[in-house]
Amino acid sequence: MNKVFTFSKVDSSSSSSSSSAAVQEVAKPAVLEEVIKVKVTNRCFDCNTKVGVMGFKCRCGETFCGSHRYPEEHKCEFDFKKTGRDLISKANPVVKADKVDKI
């Protein structure tokens, strides 16, 4: 975190130490201009062949050719089971009813 310090002289009549400087901390603007380059891939990530518009996007985020489009073929690290479990748990929340007192 970068901080910008500005120094200003203190009037000698209002302060006992005439040679000291008052330090005011001014925060730098939070606007950071980072350019994020979006990599347009038109090649298979596994065999590096050109795929053009016929490339298959996997859930792991890469583009593959027709022979490497299946997760088993390109050793995909994406966890399909965890994603499926999360979707099912969000779609079917646990509903517990209040217990009924018996008379």
From TrEMBL:
<feature type="region of interest" description="Disordered">
    <location>
        <begin position="1"/>
        <end position="23"/>
    </location>
</feature>
<dbReference type="InterPro" id="IPR035896">
    <property type="entry name" value="AN1-like_Znf"/>
</dbReference>
<feature type="domain" description="AN1-type">
    <location>
        <begin position="38"/>
        <end position="84"/>
    </location>
</feature>
<keyword id="KW-0862">Zinc</keyword>
<dbReference type="GO" id="GO:0008270">
    <property type="term" value="F:zinc ion binding"/>
</dbReference>
<keyword id="KW-0863">Zinc-finger</keyword>
<dbReference type="GO" id="GO:0043161">
    <property type="term" value="P:proteasome-mediated ubiquitin-dependent protein catabolic process"/>
</dbReference>
<dbReference type="InterPro" id="IPR050652">
    <property type="entry name" value="AN1_A20_ZnFinger"/>
</dbReference>
<dbReference type="InterPro" id="IPR000058">
    <property type="entry name" value="Znf_AN1"/>
</dbReference>
<comment type="function">
    <text>May be involved in environmental stress response.</text>
</comment>
<dbReference type="Pfam" id="PF01428">
    <property type="entry name" value="zf-AN1"/>
</dbReference>
<protein>
    <submittedName>
        <fullName>A20/AN1-like zinc finger family protein</fullName>
    </submittedName>
</protein>
<keyword id="KW-0479">Metal-binding</keyword>
